[in-house]
Amino acid sequence: MKVFLTGATGYIGGALIKYLTSAGHTILGMARSDESATKLKQQGVEVHRGELSDPASMAEGAKQADAVIHTAFPKMGPGTDFAEMGKMMSAAVTSMLNVLKGTNKTFMLTSGAGGYGPQSDTTPIDESTPIIAPTHAPNEQIVAAATLEGVRTIVLRPTIAYGHGASNPIMSWFGASRQMGGGVYIGEGDALISSVYIDDFAELYVLALDKGKSGEAYNVVSGSPVATKEIAEAISNAAGLGGKTVSVPPDEAEKLGFIGRIIGSNMVISSEKAQRELGWQPSGPSLLDELNIGSYSK
Question: Of the CATH numbers 3.40.50.720, 1.20.1440.230, 3.30.565.10, 3.30.420.40, which one belongs to the domain with range 2-161+195-221?
């Protein structure tokens, strides 16, 4: 199968290339710069020039493939206009789905467990819980509508991905911690966070491409949730900050940037559905092991 992969040079897309290729698929990777194009060519990936801000370029890539896996995501930083970002993302998704309607080709959307919104308790959330966050709900609604118009749609809702010494959320957590002089957490640091090892995540994409049911969503999480203070301490050690931690009051969480939006409340997610329906068996190292003795440790 020929797969149009957006975000092909990103953290998730980069991991996916290996797993898709190993499964016998060919990849048409989206690149927005000469540097990205060169990187993909060196991996044996066919290149399609395009970017999120140019919906027509993404539609053209989707036309050329048997399936689309959408992992591209805008860069975020201080002052990010989330409303404008959402509009751009929705325009890109709509453009790709429009050229797939009536083809029964596959479109896989990378959404996120953050779409469930703040979680008041620690009962694991499954896929029956509504997606309410304005950064996630519009795209999922667009995808759901396309399911009724001849597109095989599948949505993956990952928690924080980690591994290989990278990941935007984890590196943002490192950055905020270095800036504050200690591993940061919000309030008491008792919020529980679920996460997923990047290779397990990539494996689930391939399983979902092969076995996923049209119109279905799958949570992506491996291992047990961990308290943010415990993660902060491990980040502090890995960053050479000696295990020192810093509590940030909840009303000041925004000062930490987008990571402050993530770690201030529980994110306890169930992936039982993916394991049951797709045969997914995540086996990678835990987040704490990666921080303490793995790819992030010094």
Answer: 3.40.50.720
pLDDT tens digits, one per residue of 150-160: 999 999 999 99
d(CA 26, CA 251): 48
pLDDT at 18 over 70: yes
